[in-house]
Design goal:
Layout: E1 2-8, E2 11-16, E3 20-25, E4 39-45, E5 48-54, H1 55-60, E6 71-77, E7 81-95, E8 112-117, E9 123-127, H2 135-149
Parallel strand pairs: 2-9, 5-7
Antiparallel strand pairs: 1-2, 1-7, 3-6, 4-5, 6-7, 8-9
């Protein structure tokens, strides 16, 4: 399978590319009042309000760095809903087989999956997209996004 590679801090992560709709430069986001921690805002994508989660803010408590390699990754979440992910250094892809990934032996955030070692000897951890948002956030996020852009 093909994975989009990105970084959170100094660590490398992989997101399965099959659910990716687009990888775009960052855009100006509209703030969502009362949104959960890590929610960066919302933007209009071809007439559809798309909430955006900042992966660095979720994991490290600081927003993604503004740089040319920070991208807005638009994915399908939970079927047909679109979700934006702010990801640093999201400019490369790699192929991995399921067998390449192994249990890291430690428990982290619920969305962090198994790890693989790449050709350069570095560790890459898979992000499990469907576990990224808590049930509480999923219950309100798209409604909040629609209300802000209405």
């Amino acid at each position: 399978m093909v994975y989009l590679l990105f970084q959170i801090g100094a660590d490398r992560y992989a997101l399965e590319a099959s659910g990716t709709v687009a990888v775009e430069p960052c855009v100006r986001l509209k703030h969502i009042p009362g949104a959960a921690a890590g929610v960066a805002g919302v933007f209009d994508y071809h007439g559809t309000p798309v909430p955006v989660v900042d992966l660095s803010a979720m994991a490290l408590g600081r927003p993604a760095r503004a740089s040319l390699s920070t991208r807005l990754v638009i994915v399908r979440y939970g079927g047909e809903q679109l979700l934006g992910l702010l990801a640093e250094k999201a400019v490369d892809t790699a192929r991995y087989r399921d067998a390449d990934f192994h249990d890291p032996g430690v428990t982290g955030a619920p969305y962090l999956g198994p790890v693989a070692t790449d050709a350069r000897g570095g560790i890459v951890q898979r992000v499990e997209l469907e576990r990224l948002l808590t049930p509480e956030v999923r219950a309100v996020l798209w409604r909040q996004a629609r209300e802000v852009l209405a």
